[in-house]
Request: fold
Amino acid sequence: MPKTYENPRFDYRRCADQQPGAVAHHPVVVVGAGLVGLTAAVDLATRGVPCLLLDDDDTVSFGSRAICFSKRSLEIADRLGVGGRFLEKGITWNRGKVFLKDREVYAFDLLPEPGHAYPAFVNLQQYYPEEWLVERARELGLTEIRWKNRVTEVVQEDARVRLTVETPDGPYAITCDWLLACDGARSQVRRCLGLEFKGQVFKDRFLIADVIMKADFPTERWFWFDPPFHPGQSVLLHRQADDVWRIDFQLGWDADPEAEKQPERVLSRLKAMLGERDFELEWVSVYTFQCRRLDRFRHGRILFLGDSAHQVSPFGARGGNGGMQDADNLCWKLAAVLEGTAPETLLDSYDDERVPAADDNILNSTRSTDFITPKNAASRAFRDAVLELSGQQAFARRLVNSGRLSLPWGNAGSPLSTPCDEPGGVALPPGAPCPGAPCPGAPCPDAPVERDGRPDWLLRQLGDGFVLLLALAPDTPLPASLAALAREVPAIRPLLIAPAPRDAGGLPLLVDGQGLAAARCGLVPGTALLFRPDQHLAARWPAFDAAAVRAARDRALGIVSDQERKAVAS
Amino acid sequence: MTAHLETGPRLDDPDALYEALMAAYRDLPDAEALKLSAKLVLLLANHIGDAAVVREALAIASGRTDG
Reply:
């Protein structure tokens, strides 16, 4: 049915691994070439890590699916070399409105703040980024994608994982050191391991209708409760690229999914909503949803990312964004393990950081779902009370919940972060906010900077390795031990930042002329920040200390010092 | 110091307030009555402005504690 997009077909090709009796070995296998699997494969490739990517289909996403890409996902895409394409093709939006019956009760503005490379959200059909990531993977040349290769069996042995792969030419076997399961909510890898996927099923059904129309609706997210054209239920309208509009109709649990998908039925619902304007149906789907997750996302040599690890309701744009952020979190760690700079136990921190992130997504999406789909007469009464009050009472507007939109997870309490009160400072009480923002664990905020007289972005300058960002006043001398650190630990790239051009002793210097980097990163002259390869903050100090930086990098790599090991042993 | 829910008598004329509440509910069908209660809870909770105090009230009202 899609008319604005034709799915590319990627050919199945027989490969050498399929020779009878052969059991080829691959260091890294990624299962599932969807948004998350492709993000992981490209992230690994940018770090020089080859992988084998297996997909049971021969094309990208069928249908628009995830459509709201959050700022952090766009920044990850930028690091992977496809961010600009989201801006060119996608729809940037900032405003949302909530209607009760036929009147507006609440509007929000994501308050676009100048001085960021990417906006809060870009709407785009999921097949576009998937297609770009396939191209990017080919360009980088380290990913072998095998289409029509369906994983049927997975067995974890002590030192490796054994896979059986079904193809049009029959099955074959391979082994790998690390398996990334990015094979979605119905993950075959998860099924093979017999892992429990626990959570809550919501008794409601929703109809997605993607509609092609030239409409003069503003580029805003509109959400109706109990509109005259669909009484008693909710409706969402959101714009995508190519004059395609996503319309979600809440149907209730008793709806018959097959009958609801019939074009006549869909068209009559749309006509009630849109009137007699010209529109065409692009894609229709009826879905239910669940909020659930695996207990742990790392199971030995197998790591689960995206929907295979955790599933959320679509309200809040937390599915695709959560999955891309899983890949962002895991890939640098896996690369460090493969390179031998970090112990395998570093991968446990993927659980430490991404399980709470999934819980946060599940919590927020469950709350939204409870608001949108009341469970009984009392919860409906509360929901309607909030909506009715929200027209006049400012306090009630903050209770209206049609989706709390995805924000990056701050990794509070991560074992990889060096707490702000270490070393030598005054100990902060547990849980106290650290003196500067962002706190260790959180992603670096973006800001405009200049390098060698050319405008650029702070995040782009951070790139994808460990970076020591050191804030300097125009006239203070460079710390003497900085050059020595750069020599001894070349894996930590020093980056100086100052309000105006100054002597940088041959090191790269960012000029923060507008002071936005300083304001957003809490920089005063002397501040030293250590960033991880995923651009999250590892440590913050009021003054540079080479030994502390080395220790913080070790900690971020999961390297336990001899001293700590002794302390644990005693 | 953390505020606590006041459960001692505080109303000048409790009978008059009770009467006003009953009058508001008297002719309402169940669904409307539920919604009126919900609005009252939300307005008063916001007025209290301290989630811990509201949770205390919630615990007593749900019978999880006798205050």
In short: Residues 101 and 231 of chain A are 8 Å apart (CA to CA). The longest helix of chain A spans residues 348-372. The first strand of chain A starts at residue 23 and ends at 31. Chain A has a mean pLDDT of 93.
